[in-house]
Amino acid sequence: MRAARAAPADFRMAYFETYSPLSFVQPDGRMGGILVDVLGAVLNEDLGLHCLHEGFPWPRAQLRVTLGTSDAVCTIATADRLAYAVAVDEPVVTATNTIFVRADHPQFEALSRVKSLDELKALNLNVLSYSANGWAREKLQGFDVTWGGDFNSALKMLVARRGDLMVENALTMSYTLQRTPGGEQVRMLPNRLDQANFQLLIGKRSPHVERVASIGRALQQFKRTPAYADVFKRYGLSAAMRGSS
Predict the structure, then answer these.
(1) Could you write out the DSSP letters of every residue in the chain?
(2) Which of 7, 21, 186, 236 is a Cys-bridge partner for 175, taking CB atoms 3.0 to 4.6 Å apart?
(3) Contact at 8 Å (CB) between 93 and 222?
């Protein structure tokens, strides 16, 4: 996707371009998704900033914030990311991280009873993820992990039995599985292994880093309005799909 030219006052967001329904490139080339819609409302409408929404392969999106080419990403605040960015305390979206596994997996019942990452690790199964998944890099140390090139390739590996399971947020996985051939064979288990807080991470090189507190207040206020729930409905998702914040 071609990057738009930025004016000095622009707030330039860098998104994961293939992470539906949170952020993705629409057929007309523009970015869409829950993160895009929420941040557009908060940054543009509530704070009066001119927000540019740009999509990139996920490693490049993060690198742009590291270098100061983009102002922010919206993702999970890992230790590595907080080395180059400051997190807005209020999450943009909160989702449950749980296990996704094929219904015919021989250890389906055992996996349904797992209550923690430590219990999952003890089963010695192969977990699928993707190379730029910061949460997985931080939380799945010591696991047998097969790294796909990106989120969609890891999901297709799960459908094709090239690994045992994925641990991912319920929003993205449920939405994408419905649109993936063979996705109906994968089940979301009821275990809650973690909470995925997608926070706005403003780069330390960005001139907007001083806005962290004001953005947090505006985001908190927006989430109390019906407009926040309407964003999820726009993508066919109910409030029940969200974790508690």
Answers:
(1) -PPPPPPTTEEEEEEETEETTTEEE-TTS-EESHHHHHHIIIIIIIT--EEEEEEE-HHHHHHHHHHTSSSEEEE---TTGGGTEEE-SS-SEEEEEEEEEETT-TTHHHHHT--SHHHHHHT-PEEEEETT-HHHHHH-TTSEEEEESSHHHHHHHHHTTSSSEEEEEHHHHHHHHTTSTTGGGEEE-S---EEEEEEEEEETTSTTGGGHHHHHHHHHHHHTSHHHHHHHHHTT--GGGSPP-
(2) 21
(3) no
For 10-93+197-241, CATH number out of 3.30.750.24, 3.40.50.720, 3.40.630.30, 3.40.190.10 equals 3.40.190.10
Whether this prediction's pTM lies above 0.90 is answered by no
Report whether pLDDT(138) > 50: yes
Instruction: Give the architecture-level CATH label for domain 95-194.
Output: 3-Layer(aba) Sandwich (3.40)
Of the pLDDT bands very low, low, confident and very high (cuts 50, 70, 90), residue 9 is: low
**Long-range contacts: 41-49, Cβ < 8 Å, 24+?**
41/222, 41/227, 41/231, 42/215, 42/218, 42/219, 42/222, 43/11, 43/13, 43/215, 46/218, 46/221, 46/222, 47/211, 47/214, 47/215, 47/218, 49/9, 49/10, 49/11, 49/208
Q: What is the model's pLDDT at position 187?
A: 97
